[in-house]
Each structure stands twice: as structure tokens, then as C-alpha cells.
Amino acid sequence: MVNFMWNIFRDLYVVLLIIFIIEQIPGSDLLHDMTRKGVITVTLCLGAWKLLQPLFFESSPPGGAPVQGPRRQKKNEGGKDQGLEWAASEMQGWRAAMEDAVCIVGTLPEPFENQALFAVFDGHGGSQVSHIASKEFPKVLTACANKISSGGGSCSSSPGRQAASDCHDGDKEDKEDKDCQFSPQLHGSWFLGALCPYTRRHANPRCSWGSMLCPSGHEIRAQGKPLSLFSRYNCNVCNDKVSRRGGLYHKCPGVNRCEFRVCGQCYQEAVEGHYDLERCIDAFPHGFGPLSAHHTSLQPEDLTAFDITAQRPVNWRTGGTWFLASTFFARSSSLTQLWSVLQSHGMTISCPATSIEEGQASNEGAADQCLLVQLSPAAAVSLPVDMRKGAGIPEGPDIFVVWLYPLQLEWQTLLGDLQDVDWAQPELSLLSVGGFVYIRAPELGSRELAQVVCATSIAYSPKGALSFASPLPWQRAWTAKLRRSGRFRKVTAEKWAAAGAQYMCWLRPGEALLAPRGRNGGFAFLFHGLDEDSEDSRDCFFEIASEGSLESEASRGQESLQPTAVRLRSSLPFLLVGTVEAASPLRQQERTRQFFQAATERRWGLVAHMLAEWPCLATRADELAQTALHFCALGATSSELLFALNGAGALLEAKNLEGRTAYDLGDMTFRALVSQVWGLLPDLFSEPEVWFDYWDKSKTNQLEPEELIAALAAAYQVGEVGRRWIETYVHIHYQKLSAIDPHSMMTKIALLSDGGLLHVLQSSDEFVLLRGKENKTSARMPAIFQTEGHKRPTAADKAAVDKIGTFLAAFRRQLGLRPGQPALRNARVLEVRAPFAGGDSDPASRMSAAREMLALSFAQTTARSSKEWLQGFKIKFKGGDDKGIDEGGLTKAWVKEIAYALWGDGAFFDAKDSGYCFFKADTERDLLLHRFHVKTESLYRWVGRFLAYAVYQGCTLDCRLCPWSLRWLFRVPEEVSRRQVPEQLLALAGDWQIEGSHDVIATICGSTLLSSPGDRVLPVETFLYMSSDRVAADLEDDEVVTASLEGGKLHWSDGEIWTRCLESPLPKLTAIPTWPETPAGDDQLLEDLASLDPPSANSLWRVQHEMSDEDLQWLTFSYAGVELEPGGDDREVDASSKDRYVRLCCKAALLFQAHHGLQAFSDGFFDVLPPSLIPPGAPADIFQFLLLGSQDISSEQLAALEDLVIPQGVMPKHFCHNPAVLACCRWVFEIARDSDNSFRSRLFEFWTGSPRLPIGGVAAITPKPRLQVMVQAAPKPMQSWEVELEDGWQAFDESIANQLSQMQASYKRQVEFSVRGQKHVVDLHQMQQVNERTGVRRAIRQTVVRIQSWPKTRLPEGHTCGNELWLPLFDSREELESSLRTSVMNFEAGFALA
């Protein structure tokens, strides 16, 4: 009813207000005076209410009156703990303030240590109640649970009430807290919550969530580097090849560096906490420990600090002599035997009378006899809580630690003859090696003695609790100070003494002598006598590491079920100096079994420790006759362990039951290590520099081809055929491998550099297979020519490409073209069919559209002159959505679609098994282009022009022509230049026929005349030269014929007259490539054939080098149905003619199979671009590099592009230093770096129009790529310039802000102004304000806003004409990544999204 009446009065008021407004028109009088005054009064009251409401009502009243609209901004938070991830989100909605509260506790104290709390508290009682309740509820919950579990009854107080009670009962500071200002209305808060149990993953304590540590505790993600796909290394965890799935490589930064490699799968498992790894163990003195702590049975009454001479307690803090009661030796048979021996030798003394003053602890259980022991000065324990627990150290702030020095006895002399002495007993180890004693200090002012709490002995354990840092150098001055106080004691452990250590000293935590080092204490070792006034470089100090995997032996969890995750629980005691191998066969057998078990599980740290204690294990063998070397060969190991085995007498020639030595079983890495350790010949892979110096016989710091051949043949231990294989490889690849060196010689730089010979040998499957053919002359060699297709460019290749780029840039400037401009203003418009908008989604439709585009392009440009091609074409697409003038982007799309039409199927070119295409045979006279026939040579000539135009425009494309087709473009000008063909012969190039005949009799190609006696016979080559003014040719039997050119006809001296074939066009540049008839020339000829047909090249190499004379008789001088010589079908190949046979086969495939197509192709290419563009010394595959570019976009290239774009290429220019704009731009590159190569290629195609990079990298892209972020300066009511002060960002005055904006618009860098007498200078590039007097620098920023037409919901756009990427301003990387991936992965051919 109330609402009904309210609605009536509201509607009545609105109607009267409208009438009142109308009444203001002159001449209108509609309302009564009283009504008019009432409307005015109500309107004024409502206005006053609206103005005063914020002053009296800051928030909605209880119950929550609705506001004008809902607040939809969401506040999100999240986190993760070991084994648990969570997220929370809240939204205010219609209420004026957020009243509810969230409580999330990932780790609760006992008894909820394995549970997490998630709760939402209702805010009907007010935001203060819900907030306080969310803070106090976990404490109340835990207190209640502890009270119930301890039997203290129930817990009935509510959380809200408890929180209120705690707040009101707190101290003054708590009451002043704003959370404790209760209002009378606060009573409590309802909540919805849950306790979630979960299993906590006990990962390596050093390992943060989402990372992996090497066994030494160094984070792989931070210090590792990626392994290449062809890496020869194995994973140290699963022993599988890392190259099969990628991985990381890591070197520990210790003194004795070990290597740790892990594959991607094991890395992921370790991150998820499925297992942990053993630490890398460095042998003493390069490393120390790890040590495990073992509790002894020492009781407080067994050890007393008492001065016998002065008959008074000693200062326990300074250490010194203490006495050990005989009761300690009565706790085991071994200790009892030791006590008897000590008594018989007079080493015990009578205990002093314990007349201890009143108030001191009495030693009621003391015996009559005792033993004197030496303790180090005491120090407070400084280790973290987890390390204290792992090392068995009692808790409490009053716990001090001292080191009990070993008894300085001849242990083997005293106890060597005793039977059944358990040297592994912790009590014996405490006396013979030493150990830690923990003392509870008396209270200040108390007269009580310090009380011994417990003692622990030490033993070696790969998973020991105490780990030590790398050794630090020791100074002689420190030795003198510690020697005077008697701190050094003689080393009694055999392992340390065998390494040369003579004296050791425990340095307490915080020792002032070593400050600031030694904060956790450690051990110092001297490798010389105390009386010597000298120092040894090996003297060192090992400090206890404050970080590490410090689980105690007894506290470790359940064994991992992963077979590769071996957790070591075993620890070995230290043998004493002079220990002799036990005579018991059973003990020897058990020790040998433990040794080989550790080797089987690849616990190399434990193996090294046992080997140091018992060197005889190096020559032992298991039941399979395998020695320790065999196990090292099967699993990754270090050179240090191999050196130890060699020093212990391990036999490298020992064989297992299969008759194989460790060298036979090992991989290349193991063999290199063995060669180094056992002093074999220099190994190429372990010592490449030594190997290089050894084979550099001439000492010129370079390996000649013959020296390199001999060196590789010896390195791979091959027979005669293998040597020929290596010889061919060197002939083919010597220049490429040496191109890293400036002088193109095989220097040490070319051997060791990235991409050098050593890298090739390590990553080449052929050389791996070659190693298996040792000394087997009849073995079949691996294929030397691979079907890898296009080659990767070397540094020299890229330099040649840069020269061509410089040449083309100068060539374009001569024609008036600026960088990136596709055509002149008056250039011809090429109107063609638009690309298929669906792209690769429908290959048939795309091919149909591309074929039509090709046909129209061919028809409009085939008759155009080279000058018109160089002026460029303005591409215009018709029949599609992409209309407008071409500024470069349409040209790239046109090139891409024409390439697809040419090589998308086998309509115009023959497809090879290697996946590439080659020209149709000369017998193919015409081809069907869309709907009409064209001559084959005409189309191939146009293809040459098209590719030249692509090079001229700087476009990369997916050219599927085989590498030989592009190499032909290099070979023809090279042959003309090398042969120095006279101009008269070049003018005669083309097809000739006998006068009156219509059949081609010969073809002149430069200085070569090709005459064919028939279609099934290979053309016969005749060399031409100029003699006086006549053309001369040498025939058989020393006969010479000459010809003169008269009236366009050749008149030969034998009476024949030749005329040109009118049907054949005149070639622009023609020559027949030739190869020297030498082994190196034959190898180069085969390498050229491999660029066309790799299987044929491999077969012909085998014919030349591997095939026996018996097998050769099955071959005749014919190839692919064509006789190589007249009568070749009836002529057999033998050992004397096989070289000629191979040469003729290569020429038949390379030169004469499609000679007319190759000639037309090169004619068209050099019709557009001059041959002089090829720089001297350019590689044969120069045009392949130019056209194809690089399909792999590396992270280095992305980093180079980022440096190129940011900030120089960021648009708008005056916002290129704005933090929000820069952040948005950098997110683009972060997303690209975190993506695969497929996304990177699509991004570059979306951005620049090409999915490939130029071979010169991002620096060769023209025009330079740019990033446009669609922002504008904030409107004037909003302050657009701010400076960062201590209390946050503060806006500049309007006058200063206007001055900054004006200077920025005029591209000025610095602005000066004064505020309160202080002169400031603003650098608009660095976005900093500098106080000239104080030098204080402060960051500034300009507030920018999105352009209205570019909200963040709009997708990014690529403008390939100017190589620009347009982006809205995004608030987070996630938003940008989602939008960018949508655009990049869904755009198709043409400009659907660009």
C-alpha cells in the first residue's frame, strides 16, 4: 500500500513539473498559484536532499539501500601452496560498499597441518564484523581443536564473540586499531566455509614451486641453457637421449665442476615433486661431505667440564680439556674392549674429587676412572630450524655446540688385533673421527654447570643433513692464531689423510677470525705440518651451507615409487688412518656387493667415497664380469671418478662375459673422457683444441683439406672406403665449414665456433654411423648426400646476402624508389583476381583463385619490358573485399598466391621424391594455364622474371623449386665470368639449324656447342673459341673447323651453312657449367646433383667409390633411357671408365634433362636483374637464401626485433616512452617468445605479410616494422602529466602540463621549469624529472586513454603495406594474448583482418 501511494505521488509530481515547465512559455497560465508554489517547494527540497545526502550518509544503512547502479568491478586473488591452488573473486554489486569478507588460509597450524581453510563471511552485521571474524576465526578454530584434542572439554564460544572478546580485552595498541572500534550494532557474522584436506608435496626444500634444481641445489631454469635438437647428451635421470624431446643443460658452479643434464619429461616430473635427486658430490679436497648426524648414547653425566689441576669447573665456553667417565664405555662390547685397551696402556686417569660447591649439579653417577678429551670453544647454533632438525640438534635458544676432537691415538696399533669391533658404531666414530656435542647453557647469574644434552657422530652420506659450500682459500695468518690456542688436531680419517690433509680444525659459528665468512661454522684443513713456516695452496675451509636438502635420516618420508628416483639412506663411517682391508671373505664380498649396487643405481657420490676408502674395488668384477668401468660406460659419470678409477688401477681392457670392454660400451662422451684420463691419442670431442694442434703439422694455425681428411679418418678409425667418404665430405663442405673464418680456411675458430665443424660432427647422424664402420673396407658407408633440402646459411653467406641487399637498394634509388615502396607513381596497375578469402581451409578453392590470378598476371605482364618490371606494378585485387592502392602489402600477397599457384601441385613442374619441384622435360612443349595453352619455355621465362621481381621487392616466398634450379642462376654467370667468354660467342647463343632444314642441329651456349645425334643420345659437347675473327672448334684427330658469321649465318669451313631457328628466342645469358675432372671436381658435381636428386647422387658416389668390379659389369653407359654416348647401351662400365660414367650421368640429370626450361628460366631472371648483382665469392645457394629467407624465427631474432621496434618504432611517436604503451608493446614480444615457431610465423605474416624472415634477419625488413598503440592524451579536464612522489603520483600544475604537452608535440626532448625556487629539468625521452640542485630524479608519466573507436574488445590489425601492427591499449598481458592469438591464428589469405 505504501509503495502504491508513493508511486501515485511521484507520478503526480512529474506531471505537474512538466506543466510548470510548459507554463514558462509567454502567454500560458495553466496552474493555480498554490499548485505552482508547491511544485517549486518540492523541487527545491529534492535538490537540497541530493546535495546534502553524501555528507550525512557515507554508506548505505543497515539492510543496504540500493545505489544508482551495480558495481561490477571484480577483485580477484589467488595463490598456490605445495599441492594446492586456489582463487577467489568478489564483486560489490548494488550495495554502496563491500561488506562481506573472505578468509583463505593455505597452511593451518596443528592439528590442521594438512588442511586448508576457505570461508566467506556475511556482512549483514557490518563490514567491520565480517572483517574481524575472518581474521580471528582461524585462531579460534585452531584453539578449539587443540582444546578438544587435549581433553579439555568442548569449545562453544562462537568465532564472532571470541573475536569481539579478544579485541576488547587487548592492550592499548590493539584497541587503537581501527578493526577493534566496535559499534553497538556489531553482534556477529554468518559464514560459509570448508576445511579442504590435501596431500602436501615434499619437494626438495631448495626447490621453489615450479622449478627444478640440479643435485647441487642450483636452479636449472635460472642457470641452465637449452640443448639443441641434435645434442648427443643423455639425460642423467632417465638415461634417454635429451635430443629426442629437448631439454636443459646445466653446469654446477663449484670448484670441481660436474655436469647435469635433464630431458623435458624428467624436468616436468621433478617440478611436480615426484622425486628428488642426489646432490653432486665433489671428491675431497674439492668438496666436503655431505655428512649425516648419528646420535650416540652419551649421557649428561658422562662428560663434565672440570679443571683437574685447579679443582674447579672450567669455562665451558672456551673449550679445552674435559673428562669422559668410564660409564660411557660400558654401553657396548666394542666400547668395553676399547676401555680395556686404554686402561692397559695407562691412558685413563682417576676421576677428581667432586667437591662441587652448593648450587652446582652433582655427578652422582661418576666412576673412579675417566678419559681426557679435547673440545673446541662453544658457540650458539645459527642454523635454520629445518637444518637443526635434520642434523639432530636440540631446539632452544640456550643450545650451544662444540666439536669433540678425535683421540690422538694409533688406533690400528691399539685395536687392530681385536675381533668383533664395530667401527660403524656411532660411539666409536665419536672418539676416533670426532663429533658434535650440544650443551645447554646455565641461566645468567646461576652457579650451575653447563649440562651436556646429547652428542652426535658424523658419517658420509650422499643425502646427509649437513652440506658444505665450495672450499674457500685458507690464509697462513689464521693458522698461527689457531695453533697458539691448540685448535688444530691431527687428521684421523683415512679419506682425508689420503688426499694429503694432515691437520683439521673446527671453526665455530660466527668465528671472528673469518668474519664476515664462517657464520655457520665449518672445518679447516691443513696440508702441511704445524711446525712448517709455509702454506699449501690446498689449505682450505669448508663452511656449512645454510641452504640445502636437510632431511634427517629418520625423518624422510616414504620411498619414491619412481625407478629413477633413488633415495639414499645408507651412510658409511670413515675409516681410520692405517686401516687394512678386513681379512674376512664374507665382509669383502658384502662390501663388493654394496659397491656394485651403488654403481648399478648410478650413485656416483657413494661409489667415489667407497673407492677412496677401498681402492681394491676398482679391479673387482661382479657375476657378469663387469667392472666399475663398465657401469661408468653405461651411465653418465664425471672425469673425476674415472681419474680415481685409473689411480686405483682399474683395467681399461677388462672384458665382460660378452667380450666387450668399457670403451666398447661407452658413448662418444665416455670414450673422450677415457682417452683423456688414460692418456690415449687426442680426442676430437673431449680436447678439440689439442686435437687441432696435433694435426696441424705445418703449424700454420689452419688445417689444409688434406690434413683435415687425415685427421677425421684417424678420429673415426675408418678403412679405405671410409677415408674416401670423408674425402668427399671435405671437398663438398670445406668452404662452408671454413666460412666462419674470415679467410675461409679451417682454423681453430672455424672448428670451435657455433655452427663450425665440431658442431656439425656432434650433430651429424652420418658421422655417428661412420664410426660404426671401423676398419671394414667392405662396409656400406652412410649416405653422404642428405634429403634435407635447403641449406642453412653461414656467416659468410649472410654477408653475401647483405651485399646484394645493398646493391638492390642502390639500384632502386637510381629508379627513384624509396625503401619499402613497391612501385613508382606512374607504374602500371596490375588488376588481378583477389585471393580466396578462406585461405587453406579449402585448398581447391584457393588453388582455383590462385590459378586465375596467375593467368591474368601472365597475360598482362609477359610482354612487358624489363624497364616496366623494374618500375614495379601496383597490384589491385578485384572481386574481393581488399580494394585500394597497393603500398606494398598487396604485392606481398600477390607474390604469395602466385607461388602457391606455381608449386602448389604438379601442374607446371615435376614433383621430386624430396618434396621439391623441377622443370618439365624438354619434350613437354606447352602447358595448360587456367583456360588456355602457353609454351613451356614462355611460362618458365615468366617464372624467372617473377622470382627476380620478388628478389627486387625484397619479398620472401615458399619457393618449392629444387635447390639446383636456383643454383643454376648462380652457375651460368659464374661460368661466363670464369671462362671469360668473348662477346662474339655470346652473340651466337641459341639454337641453329642447317640452311633449308627445320630441325635443330646444335645449340651454342657460351663457349660450348651442343650437338645431338638423336633424341635418345646425350648431346655431345664441343669447345668453341675465337681464332682471329673466326669461330673455331677442335674435333677428333686434331682436326679444326672454323666458321664465320656473315649475314646472320654461320659459314663453316667444311661447307655447311647454319641459320638461326626462328621459333627459338634469343637467350640473354647462356653457358654450360663445367666441373674439373679431378676428385674434388667430381665431388662438387655430385653435390650439385644432390641438390636435385639426393638418392641418385648417393648411388653414383657408391658406384665411384664402393662398388666392386664384379658389380660394375651390370652397368652400361645409359641413364634414364638415354644413352650417355653413342652406342652406350652396349658398353659396360668398368673400373677404368666408372669416373666418366658418373660424370656423364650427373650432366644428363643436371644439364640436359630440362635444358630449355633452365635456359628460359635464367633468361627471364636476368632480363629483370643484371648478373652483376652477384658479388664475388658469393655462395652457390645465394638465390635460395634470398628467396626463401629463414623459416625458423628464433628468440634471438625476436629480441633483435624488440630492440628495433621499442621505442623507435612505437607509434604515436610522442607516446613512445609512456609506461602503459611500452608495457603493451613488450607484451607482444613476451607472447611471441613463449609461443612455438608456428605462431611466430603466423605473427610475422600478419604483421609484415611474409611468414619468413629475410636471411639478414629483422634488420633487413623494409620498411622497418612498427607498433601502433591506439591511444591519445587524456582530455583537458583530466590531468595528463604526473610525477611520482613518496606518497604516490601527483599531477603537475596546468601550466606545466601544457608546457610539457607542447614540447612533446614539437618533439623536443627537455623542458625546464621552476617550482618554489627549485629548478627542474624534464627529459621526455627518459620520462624523468631531475632537480638541478639536489640531483634527485623522479619518474613522470603522461596519462593516456584509448581512442574511442579502439576499445580493448577490438581485435589487433596487421597493416602489411607499412609493416605495422595496430593494437588497442590493453590492461593486462592475458587480455592482449587472447585477442592477438584470435587475430593471428584466424586470418587467411588476403587482408581479412589486416
TrEMBL record:
<dbReference type="InterPro" id="IPR050409">
    <property type="entry name" value="E3_ubiq-protein_ligase"/>
</dbReference>
<dbReference type="InterPro" id="IPR037197">
    <property type="entry name" value="WWE_dom_sf"/>
</dbReference>
<dbReference type="InterPro" id="IPR035983">
    <property type="entry name" value="Hect_E3_ubiquitin_ligase"/>
</dbReference>
<dbReference type="InterPro" id="IPR000569">
    <property type="entry name" value="HECT_dom"/>
</dbReference>
<dbReference type="InterPro" id="IPR004170">
    <property type="entry name" value="WWE_dom"/>
</dbReference>
<dbReference type="GO" id="GO:0016020">
    <property type="term" value="C:membrane"/>
</dbReference>
<feature type="region of interest" description="Disordered">
    <location>
        <begin position="62"/>
        <end position="83"/>
    </location>
</feature>
<keyword id="KW-0597">Phosphoprotein</keyword>
<feature type="domain" description="WWE">
    <location>
        <begin position="1266"/>
        <end position="1342"/>
    </location>
</feature>
<keyword id="KW-0378">Hydrolase</keyword>
<feature type="region of interest" description="Disordered">
    <location>
        <begin position="150"/>
        <end position="170"/>
    </location>
</feature>
<dbReference type="InterPro" id="IPR000222">
    <property type="entry name" value="PP2C_BS"/>
</dbReference>
<feature type="domain" description="HECT">
    <location>
        <begin position="873"/>
        <end position="1394"/>
    </location>
</feature>
<dbReference type="InterPro" id="IPR018247">
    <property type="entry name" value="EF_Hand_1_Ca_BS"/>
</dbReference>
<dbReference type="InterPro" id="IPR036457">
    <property type="entry name" value="PPM-type-like_dom_sf"/>
</dbReference>
<protein>
    <recommendedName>
        <fullName>HECT-type E3 ubiquitin transferase</fullName>
        <ecNumber>2.3.2.26</ecNumber>
    </recommendedName>
</protein>
<keyword id="KW-0808">Transferase</keyword>
<dbReference type="GO" id="GO:0005737">
    <property type="term" value="C:cytoplasm"/>
</dbReference>
<keyword id="KW-0833">Ubl conjugation pathway</keyword>
<dbReference type="GO" id="GO:0006511">
    <property type="term" value="P:ubiquitin-dependent protein catabolic process"/>
</dbReference>
<dbReference type="GO" id="GO:0061630">
    <property type="term" value="F:ubiquitin protein ligase activity"/>
</dbReference>
<feature type="active site" description="Glycyl thioester intermediate">
    <location>
        <position position="1361"/>
    </location>
</feature>
<dbReference type="InterPro" id="IPR001932">
    <property type="entry name" value="PPM-type_phosphatase-like_dom"/>
</dbReference>
<dbReference type="Pfam" id="PF00481">
    <property type="entry name" value="PP2C"/>
</dbReference>
<dbReference type="GO" id="GO:0016567">
    <property type="term" value="P:protein ubiquitination"/>
</dbReference>
<dbReference type="Pfam" id="PF00632">
    <property type="entry name" value="HECT"/>
</dbReference>
<keyword id="KW-0539">Nucleus</keyword>
<dbReference type="GO" id="GO:0046872">
    <property type="term" value="F:metal ion binding"/>
</dbReference>
<dbReference type="GO" id="GO:0004721">
    <property type="term" value="F:phosphoprotein phosphatase activity"/>
</dbReference>
<keyword id="KW-0479">Metal-binding</keyword>
<comment type="pathway">
    <text>Protein modification; protein ubiquitination.</text>
</comment>
<dbReference type="GO" id="GO:0005634">
    <property type="term" value="C:nucleus"/>
</dbReference>
<keyword id="KW-0904">Protein phosphatase</keyword>
